[in-house]
Write a structure and sequence with these properties.
The N and C termini lie far apart (52 Å). By secondary structure, this protein is of the alpha/beta class. Helix 2 packs parallel to helix 7. It folds into two domains: 9-176 and 325-395, 3-Layer(bba) Sandwich (FAD/NAD(P)-binding domain); 207-321, 3-Layer(bba) Sandwich (FAD/NAD(P)-binding domain). The chain is built from eight helices and 25 strands. The protein has helices spanning 20-31, 50-62, 87-92, 189-204, 218-230, 249-261, 377-395, 432-442, and strands at 41-46, 70-76, 80-82, 103-105, 119-125, 127-131, 136-140, 149-151, 162-164, 167-170, 174-175, 210-214, 235-240, 265-268, 270-271, 295-298, 300-301, 312-315, 317-320, 325-326, 344-345, 358-360, 365-366, 410-413, 419-422. The strands form nine sheets. Strands 8-5-2-1-10-22 form a six-stranded mixed beta sheet, covered by helices on one side. Helices cover 22% and strands 21% of the residues. The chain binds flavin-adenine dinucleotide. Residues 47-52, 75-77, 84-85, 87-88, 127-128, 171-174, 176, 180-181, 184, 219, 327, 330, 362-363, 375-378, 380, 412, 441, 446 line the site of flavin-adenine dinucleotide (FAD). Keywords: FAD, Flavoprotein, Oxidoreductase. InterPro entries: FAD/NAD-bd_sf, FAD/NAD-binding_dom. Residues 26-35 have a biased composition (Low complexity).
């Protein structure tokens, strides 16, 4: 697939679309493996995070008036979207930002079916067990369920959750410790509310006096700042090899200044690597916060010159924010272009390297080139726009266009009263980025950023 910045498929009449047989034979020769099905154009989006949902919505809009039948499927291990972006606030403000407000049933994606459209939308709830480079997807029941669930009805011939599509968008995202994200596998919403509320209640308990956050990235400092802002009498400590590694120095300086103002202790140049029950093995998406009084978090110095590094830090609660890992388990590394760390390599067009008909967006991708591409919801959404446009171009037989990496931007709230921000062309000057961060996330913890879905779960009257 080539990149051609001068081609615009929107200017081309629909009649230029290749015939169904031409499309299928092209798809067959490109995939070089199993025979494609005969019938409507089939597209599946794998994963219902911001990247997957925006790709699903974009494809539904772009193909609503397609001249022939289109089947569009969104596959998710849960029947709801969980707003990860607002978890630090929900953890400390169960009344203002109850966790139910972070849970959006996926059914609402199906309610706006356009009259007379050839496009049929479906959601398949189940865990994706495997995805072939022939675009065969195998979905099995999610945790605590006996069957896969098709909403509203199965794709023809795919009741058991196995099917082949013409185009795929891989948006399987990443996992990290609970409660920042929920474990992959399909936790039911009632159970999630219970577990999240349980963690929030234990954190609020006055016996939980010393809180340690392991990890000095954006999530670590945001979590620490939310806790300290909501509970100013608790001792909050961040332990990490480095604060905001890889971020511009003025941004790091701004963060240090806000954290110091909030009396959050930073122990850097240390690593936590020997705490059974705290740090699960790599790639186990089941880290949990630990609530054990007088837990000694063991530290190892990362500074060879240090002579007086602390060997442990006491805690009554420990939150883990040591970064994300990609959800690439369904992709056989022998067949798919995955990196050593499990990221899926894409071309600048967001097509998966060397695999016909497959695009990928969001946290799971390894984007080529020297520009830093963050793992951010807003970038996943931007990438989805390009992936959608490129699928439409591919359907029309047109050349693909590259995604343009936006200039580096970083904004985050540090509690409801402070923020840090680095904006293109401005950096941290005049505190403009910090003001933007406060506006975007300070007040409501970022709940308002979810503008692509309307209805969250109703909040129980007792909340
Ligand atoms: C605490 C926190 C705060 C953040 N704040 C911000 C912020 O302020 N702004 C911002 O832009 N970004 C923020 N981010 C980053 C943002 O959440 C991610 O970049 C974004 O969620 C990535 O979207 P995605 O669609 O690629 O993947 P994900 O959101 O990870 O979604 C992937 C989906 O695929 C599902 N899935 C995975 N494997 C399978 C499988 N085998 N079968 C079925 N389903 C599967 C997952 O369960 C999940 O629902 C924050 C992240 C965290 C953790």
């Amino acid at each position: 697939m080539s990149t051609d910045a001068t081609t615009n498929s929107k200017t081309k009449p629909a009649s230029r679309k290749p015939s169904l047989m031409k499309r299928l034979s092209k798809s067959y020769s490109r995939s070089g493996s199993s025979l494609p099905h005969v019938g409507p154009l089939r597209i599946a989006v794998l994963g219902a995070g911001p990247g997957g949902i925006k790709a699903f919505q974009g494809l539904a809009k772009a193909l609503a008036s397609h001249p022939s039948a289109v089947d569009l499927v969104l596959v998710s291990d849960r029947d709801y979207y969980f707003n990860t972006v607002s978890t630090p606030r929900a953890l400390v403000d169960p009344t203002g930002t109850p966790v139910a407000k972070l849970i959006y049933p996926l059914r609402q994606l199906l309610t706006d079916e356009a009259m007379g459209s050839n496009l049929t939308k479906r959601v398949l709830v189940g865990r994706i067990e495997s995805v072939g480079t022939d675009r065969r997807v195998k979905v099995i029941p999610s945790a605590e369920r006996n069957t896969v669930e098709w909403i509203p009805s199965p794709l023809s011939g795919a009741d058991d959750g196995s099917f082949v599509v013409d185009y795929l968008v891989v948006a399987l995202g990443s996992h990290t410790a609970f409660p920042s994200k929920v474990p992959v596998g399909g936790i039911e919403s009632a159970k999630l509310v219970e577990q999240f509320t349980g963690a929030a209640t234990k954190l609020a308990d006055e016996k939980t006096h010393r809180v340690v956050v392991i990890g000095g990235g954006l999530v670590g400092i945001e979590t620490a700042a939310e806790i300290k802002t909501a509970y100013p009498t608790k001792d909050v400590t961040i332990v990490a090899p480095e604060l905001l590694p890889g971020y511009p120095a003025p941004f790091v300086k701004q963060a240090r200044s806000v954290l110091a103002r909030k009396s959050i202790t930073i122990i850097d140049h240390v690593r936590v690597n020997n705490a059974p029950g705290l740090l699960a093995p790599t790639n186990t998406p089941s880290f949990r916060p630990v609530f054990v009084p007088d837990f000694a978090v063991p530290l190892t110095s990362t500074d060879p010159a240090a002579t007086t590094a602390p060997i442990s830090v006491p805690a009554d609660a420990v939150f883990v924010a040591t970064g994300v890992a990609p959800n690439s388990a369904p992709l056989d590394p022998q067949a798919w272009p995955v990196t050593d760390r499990g990221y899926l390599r894409v071309t600048p067009d967001l097509a998966v390297e060397g695999v016909a008909g497959v695009f990928a967006v969001g946290d799971i991708i390894e984007f080529p080139g020297k520009d830093r591409v963050g793992k951010l919801a807003f970038l996943a959404g931007e990438q989805s726009k390009t992936a959608v446009a490129n699928i439409v171009r591919a359907v029309h037989g047109d050349s693909l266009k590259a995604w343009k990496v936006p200039p580096f931007t970083a904004v985050t709230a540090l509690g409801r009263d402070a923020g840090i921000g680095y904006l293109p062309g401005i950096g941290t000057k005049l505190g403009v980025g910090a003001a933007v961060a406060k506006k975007l996330k300070g007040k409501d913890g970022g709940v308002g950023l979810v503008d692509f879905l309307k209805e969250s779960l109703p909040v129980p009257a007792s909340a």
